[in-house]
Amino acid sequence: MKIQENISLKAFNTFGIDVKAKFFAEVESKNDIIEALTFAKTAKKPILILGGGSNVLFTSDLDALVLKVNIRGIEPISQDKDKVILAAGAGEMWHDFVLYSIENNLSGIENLSLIPGTVGAAPMQNIGAYGVEIKAVFHSLEAIKICSGRTQIFLPADVNFGYRESVFKKSLKGKYIIYKVNFNLSTSHVPNISYGDIQKVLKEMNQAKPTAKNISDAVINIRQSKLPDPKTVGNAGSFFKNPVVPVEVYKKLKQAYPTLPGYPSDASQIKIPAAYLIENVGWKGKKLGKVGVHDKQPLVLVNYGGGKGNDILELSRKIQLDVQTKFNISLEREVNLINDKSLIYP
Ligand code: FAD
Ligand code: EPU
Questions:
Q1: CB neighbours (10 Å) of residue 221?
Q2: Is 78 known to be catalytic?
Q3: Of residues 54, 216, 238, 316, which has the active-site annotation?
């Protein structure tokens, strides 16, 4: 493992923010991780774990050791009539893993096609799209505790998944390096096509009895039509979470704003699309210097080139203030804000 010094992270985050890491290394095995922890301890530097950099916003240079997790490998670890447990290295690209599962006639994650980033980051915020979250297929994960170097196995009950949440985004934030994730995938396909435009697109594709591959293709088609490709314009997907409010609050808002959409989150709460709120306060398609709000999906903030992390942060705060003022709803950030102060020492 090579430890490099003073490396720009511009190519390692999808916002394309140009900050420097004091030290940078790509880890390809558990041994590399242990070696890196020893280095950081001796150098008295904190650690940042990075996957594909598609859900981070850097707001300062990092006087730290940045570890890009490149641990690869996909293998079945158990198999029965209906189910296969598939293990994947944290550095596998998520979409490649989805395609691998489909090619091997396994289903459960086809609705999560084309989500950028790595397998290892997927449990962090319980990635979700088109009616599925990884919570539904999560078996377990294996991680190394930064402060002790010890290996630990996490089962579903330990991870505490929620909407765009897990224990790794809360009390254990930055404290573990996930190196392997194990998934329960199904050998018989039960299509999940209830969300959004999937049915419409499948109809256009003439697929009355869709396979997992058909659903994956439909999801790819929808995503490409509305989400900006980070290769063309810097972004990290949805910048905020969709707010979840009590039914009573939603009903009152709906009286004032009859077009306000809302979807039951559970028996007593409604999820409101933040995109609607942001569009309604006038930010959709707006620019603020080198950064702005995407013109097709206002939940996505974009860096048109040369924008700094603090420019995005400032824009996000203006949006939060306007939404708070008009709707009395506070938008919570989905993207992980990373600066020198947010990191953990080994
Ligand atoms: P990174 O951005 O590298 O890291 C994210 C966080 O996880 C950081 O705090 C990092 O320290 C931590 N982390 C990363 N790897 C590890 C590890 N191995 N061990 C411990 N901690 C780790 N998300 C969705 O849920 N649904 C979507 O539909 C979706 N669409 C997107 C569309 C676009 C165009 C983009 C750019 C992003 C989208 N996202 C979506 C967000 C993002 O793709 C996911 O959050 C993804 O899981 C991030 O993976 P990553 O490897 O890039 O993580
Ligand atoms: N809308 C508007 N104006 C717009 C666009 C959307 O008002 O310009 C409203 C519409 O009412 C629309 C609704 O927002 O029906 C929902 O839009 P969309 O289907 O695009 O989904 P989203 O709620 O904005 C969420 C996730 C995405 C995920 C999609 C599909 C969050 C924070 N975002 O977006 O995840 O891909 O659903 O499931 O939950 C991500 O997390 O980075 C991400 C992209």
A1: 17
A2: no
A3: 238
- Judge if 277 and 252 occupy the same domain: yes
Question: Count of domains in the chain?
Answer: 3
Q: Nearest CA to 143 among 180, 117, 174?
A: 180
Catalytic option among 101, 107, 164, 166: 164
d(Cα 316, Cα 58) in Å, to the nearest integer? 14
Residue positions counted in the chain = 346
Task: Convert the pLDDT of each residue in 156-209 to its tens digit.
Answer: 999 999 999 999 999 999 999 999 999 999 999 999 999 879 999 999 999 999
Domain hosting 126: range is: 74-192
Closest CA to 339 of 41, 12, 6, 21: 21
Indicate whether residue 120 lines ligand 1 (CB < 6 A).
yes
Token pair for 270? 């409604």
What's the pLDDT tens digit per position in 120-129? 999 999 999 9
CA of 335 to the centre of ligand 1 (A): 8
Element (H, E) at 50: strand 47-50
